[in-house]
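Supplementary Note 3. Input sequence used for the single-chain structure prediction.
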Amino acid sequence: MTKRILIIDGHPDPAGERLVHALAQAYREGAEFGMHEVMTLRVADLSFPLLRTQADYEKGEPSQPIRDCQSMLDWATHVVIVYPLWLGSMPAMLKALLEQILRPGFAFSTRQQGRWPVKLQSGKSARIVITMGMPGWLYRWYFRAHSLRSLQRNILHFVGFRRVRATLIGNVANLSSAQRHACLQRMRRLGQRAA
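The predicted structure, written as discrete structure tokens, is reproduced below.
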């Protein structure tokens, strides 16, 4: 089944040699080979203001770049978010972008249905890909995959994503060229299946 895939490349550094950029591109190549429709959103290419108040978050008017991002998210049935682990979490620019995009009225409704807000992004699936300097198993075991779990539960499930899967790529500074190639091939396979 053909999917509409939005790839969010969450590395704020536009330098082309970043592994995150290569992983996002590899996923795109696989998805296009699998005959899926694909859009890519690169955080490094965006300019947008930070949210500074609750009033702005709840009632402020999003800038045009943010409205464009919201349109891309509305279009997508599957979202891929790729980012490096920085200080135990996602880079600040990616977090700021998600805060801007996933506003009340777009991502969820403040209108109560029972005790919970209405999820306005229901039915979408996602894959989160995180690169890190430490081994992936250590991040899961010792650090309890805090950033990943927060993005899965507190953000994506909250707005309606039904299935969120993850890929962790550890020890990135020490990857051999063969290991890097294997990571890119894995992303192409995941993209082809839109998994």
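Residues 4-193 form a domain with the Rossmann fold fold (CATH 3.40.50.360). The chain has one domain: 4-193.
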